[in-house]
Amino acid sequence: MFGTGLLKGLGVTLKHAMDTFNDDREAVPDRYRGSLELGDNRRVIQQPIDQEGLLTIQYPEEKRLLPERFRYIPMLIWDSEKHEDRCTACGICAKVCPPQCIWIVRDSDENGKPVTRASEFYIDAAVCMSCSFCVEFCPFDAIKMNHDYELAVYDRYPQLVYDMEELTVPLEYYAALWPTQYDEEQTRRREEEEQKRRQAEEKARRVATKNAAAKEPTAAGPKRSAAELQKLARERAAQRKTQTADGDKSGDDAAAAKKARMEELKRKAQERARQRKLESGE
Amino acid sequence: MSQATAVAEPPVVDIRFEQELADAIVGAWAEDTQKAYMIAPDKILAVLRHLRDVEGYDFLSNLTCVDYKGYGGKLRNDVSERLEVVYRLYSTRIGGGPISLHVRVPQDETVPSATAVFPGANLQEREVYDLFGVKFDGHPNLRRILLWDGFNGHPMRKDWQEAYYEEDVKPFRSRHPKGEYAFHEDKLPWAKNTTYPTGWDPDSWQQPVAYVPVSQAPHHENEPHLDTESIVVNLGPHHPSTHGVFRMLTRVEGETILALEPEMGYLHRNHEKIGERNTWLMNMPFTDRLDYLNSMSNNWSYALAVEKLAGIEVPERAEYLRVIMAEFGRIVNHAWSIGFILNDLGALQTPALYAIEEREMILDLFEAVSGARLMCNYMRFGGVVRDLPAGWHEQATYLANDRLPRALDELDRLLTENEILKARGRGVGYLSVEDLISLSVSGPMIRAGGLAYDIRKAEPYGIYDRFDFDIPTLPNSDIYDRYYIRLLEARESVRILQQALRDIPEGEILGGKGGYTLRAPEGEVYSRLEAPKGELGFYLVSDGKTTPWRYHVRSPSYINLNALGPMSVGYKIADAIVILGAIDIVLGEVDR
Ligand code: SF4
Ligand code: SF4
User: Fold this and answer.
1) What ligand has the least distance to the C-alpha of B278?
2) Ligand 2 contact, A75 CB (< 6 A)
3) I need a surface site. Which of B82, B150, B172, B221 has the fewest CB within 10 A?
4) Per-residue pLDDT, B160
C-alpha cells in the first residue's frame, strides 16, 4: 500500500525521539555513563560503545576523553630524573618529517666542536601534519606526541612556530598522557641501561686486569665509567644552565618562567593521572 | 544478480596480435617488474581497439604520463624521448591482471587520443595535457582541468619548480644541523612569484561562459514546437550540494539538462609533485589526505604498490588488521554516502545523522588504535604500525556482531521502502553498465548496474580470498539502486569483519625492511584495490633512489566523474545534485 514505507520510516524516527526523551529524564542520561564529572557542568566524556541515540558534546564545557595514542603536535622530553633534555640533536626526526617542519641547531662546545644536544629546536605547528614519524624514528625517546589541541592564536608567525622552550615538557607530563607506552618504555630503557652498565663494568674489569698485568696505568684512558660519565653530564647540565642564565639579561626571569611552566605542567599531569585513576576505578 | 560473479583467472600475459598489428609492439619496459608493451604512437588506437574487441580488455583503468628527463636508472639508457604515456587495461569479464601499454611521445608532443576507443580516457587525458603538456589528437575537449588557463608551465615536468622550491628531494639540508627557522612567506612574498604564459594578459582574460560540450548542446531537440531559449546555469563552486568546492556548468531548457560539464581543481595542491619530492615513506601520511573519509584504504593501496615493487612481505596478523580497518572504513564511507544521497534529495539531516551514529564509534576505534580519527597514517610497508590496544578487539567484535547489523537494518527500515525516495530515485540518472565501463567508472556504481566486478574477487589482494562474502548487484543503474547497493555492500563488509575478527591470529604486525631509508628497486608498478568509492590505484616508477621517480594516484572519485555529464543529460536540474551525490566523490581525491 502506498505510504507504508513512509510510515515505517516515521516509526524509526519516533522510536529515536522517544528513546532520547526518556533517556534525558533519567538522573544520569545514558550518554554520560562512563564520563568524568568535573562539576559546574564540565565533563570529560567517554561515549560508551553501546550508547543509543545521538550525542552532542557541549564543547568547551564538555570534552572528549582522548585515547592514549592521540597525536597532535610533538613535544620534547625533559628527563626530570637526569635533569637534561633527552634530545641529542641527531637530526633523524628532521630527516623523516614529511613536510619538513622541524628545524634543529646542533650545539657546540667552546672549541666549536659539535656536541650531542640541540641549542635550538623549532617545529612549525602550522605545517606539522601530526603524522608522528618523528616520534616513531627518534632513537632516544626524546620526542613524543602532545595531546593539547587548543592551540588557536591570532598569528601564524611567530606564535605557531614553537621553539625549544615551548616544546619541552617534563617526563611526568608525558607519563601521564601516555601511561601504557611510558611504562613499556621505562622497562626497556632500564634494561638497556642495566646492560650498558654491566658491559661497562665488564670492560672496566678487563682493562683493570690488563693494566694490572702491564703494571702501568694507561695515560689516555679513553673510557670513563658510567658513574663518571653521569657525573660529567650533570656538571655539564649545571654549567649550561648558568651559561644561559648569564648570557641572557632576563636570564633569571626566563629560568623562573620556565620553572613555573614546568611546575604547572607537572601539576596538570598529576591532575590527569588522577582523572585516569578515577575513571579506571569506576 | 543478473551476471555471474567475475572471479580471478590467470591473467592473459602474452597477447597474440594479428598480423597487421605485429609491428605495433616496438619493445618492452622493465621486464623484471611488470610486463609492459611499448607501442608505436600511430598504432595505439588500433591496439586499444583490438584489446577491447578481441581480447576483452574493456576497462581502461589508468592513463597517465611519465617525464624521464634526468632519469637516473639504468633501464632507459638509449632512449631519447623524455615523455611516455602509459595505459593500464583490465577485463571486467575475465578478471585478473592488467595489460600495460607504453607510448613514447614523439617530438611534436602529440599522441592520438584514446577517447575514440575508450570515452573514459577523457578526464585522464585532460589531466596529462594539463600537468605534462602532452597533446591528444582527436580529444573532444582538450582544456586544462586542474589548473587554470593562466598557469605558466606544466608542473609535473621534472624541470618545473614550485614557489618555495628548495631542493629536488627531501630531506632538505637546511633543517639540520644548522636549522635556523626562516618564515616561509618571507622567502618569497606573495605576488612576486606569479608568472604567466607568454602572451598572456591576466587583465584582459575572461573565463569562457560555456565550454564544449555545453556550448555545443543541441537546442530544442526534444520539443521543437517550444519557442524557448536554452540558458546556461552555473552550480557551485561554493554550494552545499557539491560536496566541497566543485562546479557544474549546465545548459538547460526549462528545467531539463541538455549538457553538463564538471569543473574542478579548486582544491588542487599537486599531490603528485609533492610525492615525487618525498621519500617513499613520507608519502604515507599524504595519502590520508586524498579521500579523507577512507585514509585506511588509501594507506593500504599505497603500501600494496610499494610492497609489490620492493618485494616486502606482510605478516599474517597485519593482513588481518588491514582487512579489519579497511572494512570498517567501507562501512563508514557507505553510511556517510547514503546519508548524503538523502541529503541531496532534500531529506535534510535526519537520515544523515542516523547513518553516521555508528560512524562515531568506528572513528573512536580508529583513534584508539592509530591516534587519529581521519588521518590514520596507520599502515607501513610490510604491515601496520601499532598493534591493537587493550579492549579494542572486544569493542570491535561487539560492533561487528551486534551493533552494526542492527544499525544497517534500521537504516534499511528507515529508507528503503520510502515512497518519496523511490519516486525521486527510480529511473533517474540511468546509464547502461556498458556505458559506465567504457567511461572507466568503477566501484558501487557499476555493481548497481548489474555487473559483479569487485577487485576483492576479480584480482584478490591481501587475504580477501579467505573470506566468505558476496558481491551484491542490482539491475537498474539508477539513483535508487546506487543508494541501495551501498547498504548491501556495508552488510557484506560486516560479514567480512565478523570472520576477520574471529580468525585474527597473534603475532608480528610489521615485517620487512620498509623503513624511512627504503630504496625501491628500479622498475614500475601499478597496484590497485577496491576502495569504497571504486578502484584506487597507485602507479609508481622507481629509478632505485630514496624517492619515487613517478608517483601517480588513480583516484576513483576523479575518474568516476567521467559519467556525470552523460548521466545527467535529459533529467531535471534538481536531479543533477543527487546524480552527483550518488557518484560519491570527495574533492580531496578529485583535485589531488
Ligand atoms: S628529537 Fe630524537 S630524533 Fe630528533 S634530534 Fe632529538 S634525539 Fe634526534
Ligand atoms: S608529527 Fe610528523 S609532521 Fe609533525 S613534526 Fe613530527 S614528523 Fe613532522
Assistant:
1) 2
2) no
3) B221
4) 87
Q: Are residues A91 and A152 in the same domain?
A: yes
What is d(CA B483, CA B502) in angstroms, rounded to the nearest whole number? 30
Over pLDDT 70: what percentage of chain B?
A: 90
CB of A123 closer than 6 A to ligand 2?
yes
In this structure, is residue A132 part of a structural domain?
Answer: yes
The residue of chain A nearest to residue B356, with distances taken between CA atoms, is A54
Q: What is the ipTM of this complex?
A: 0.82
Place of cell 654491566: A198
What residues of A are in contact with residue B174 (Cβ under 8 Å)?
Answer: 103
**Structural domain count of chain A:** 2
In this structure, what C-alpha cell is assigned to residue A126?
Answer: 602550522
Query: Which residue is closest in CA terms to ligand 2's atom 8?
Result: A97
B389 and A CB contact within 8 Å: yes
- The CB density around residue A192, as the number of other CB atoms within 10 Å, is 10
Query: Which pLDDT does position B47 carry in this prediction?
Result: 86
Residue of A nearest to B278 (CA): A98
Copy the grid coordinates of residue B30: 622493465
CATH architecture of the domain covering B19-137? 2-Layer Sandwich (3.30)
Task: Report B:485-524 residues touching A (Cβ under 8 A).
Answer: 515-516
Chain A residues with beta carbon closer than 8 angstroms to that of B371? 67, 69-71, 132, 145
Is B247:B263 a contact under the CB 8 Å cutoff? yes
> Domain residue spans in chain B?
19-137
Using CA atoms, how far residue B201 sits from A247, B151, B249, in Å, is 56, 11, 25
Q: What is the pLDDT of residue A275?
A: 66
A20: containing domain: 12-65
Residue B528 β-bridge partners: B537
Task: Look at residue A50 and tell me if it is in a domain.
Answer: yes
Tell me if the bond preceding B155 is cis, omega within 30° of 0. no
Q: Is A97 inside any structural domain?
A: yes
Q: What band does B179 get if pLDDT is binned at 50, 70 and 90?
A: confident
- Are A78 and A173 part of one and the same domain? yes
Chain B residues within an 8 Å CB radius of A120: 179-181
| B401-448 residue pLDDT tens | 988 998 898 888 888 878 888 888 888 889 899 999 999 999 999 999
Asked whether residue A172 is domain-assigned, the answer is yes
More confidently predicted of B583 and A275: B583
Write the CA distances from B187 to A101, A126, B167, integer angstroms.
15, 17, 14
Residues A104 and A153 in one domain: yes
Q: Residue A34 has which C-alpha cell?
A: 562512563
Least CB-CB distance to A91: which of B177, B282, B357? B177
At A273, phi and psi to the nearest 5?
Answer: -60, -40
Q: For A6, which of B353, B375, B419 is closest by C-beta distance?
A: B419
Q: Is B18 exposed, middle or buried (0-12, 13-18, 19+ CB in 10 A)?
A: exposed
Number of H helices, E strands in chain A: 8, 10
Interface contact B170-A89, CB threshold 8 A? no
